[in-house]
Amino acid sequence: MNARLPADWWLVFAAWLVAATATLGALFFGEVMGLPPCLLCWYQRICMFPLALILPLGLAAQDRHIVRYALPLAMIGLAIALFHQALVSGWVPKSLEPCARGVPCSKTVVEWFGFLTLPWLSIAAFAAIVLLLTLAFRQGRR
Predict the structure, then answer these.
(1) How does pLDDT run across 38-70, given as a tens digit for each residue?
(2) Quick one: which of 62, 58, 106 has its CA closest to 86?
(3) Of the candidates 74, 122, 82, 95, which has an alpha carbon nearest to the alpha carbon of residue 66?
């Protein structure tokens, strides 16, 4: 670990790596594989894509307040991803499905190993970002 940079900087850097990977993954599925995103996927993208941009800006300026701006966005994205997976799994009634037309939110378009879907990948990415930013916030308060 670099002695000149504080531990919270490395945690925010790890969160940025997750956000950048998730953003590139979403762009790959949409633009390369041609999978159109549903409405809930768009909402998750609205939360994830800015994280890939604002986290490195905060890191470059060594702005300790970047966690306060990024963490609520990640928590909202996590909540949307959890709702999306609940909808796909059938735990939420289809009457609450927000997609009126286009790609239905309850449809599973990609599934690996029999359980890994795009909403699960989104949950994993947002949960990792929330955890890393929470740890960075706690570390920065010391």
Answers:
(1) 899 999 999 999 999 999 999 998 888 899 999
(2) 106
(3) 74
Place of tokens 């940025």: 16
Backbone phi, psi, residue 6, to 5° = -70, 160
137: region left, alpha or beta (phi > 0 left; psi from -120 to 50 alpha): alpha
Question: Which positions ≥6 away from 132 have C-beta within 8 Å?
Answer: 11, 12, 14, 15, 18
CA atoms of 142 and 123, how far apart (whole Å): 29
pLDDT-based confidence at residue 22 (cuts at 50, 70, 90): very high
Tell me if residue 65 falls in helix, strand or coil: coil
CB crowding 12-31: b at 16 or more within 10 Å, else e: bebbbebbbebbeebeebee
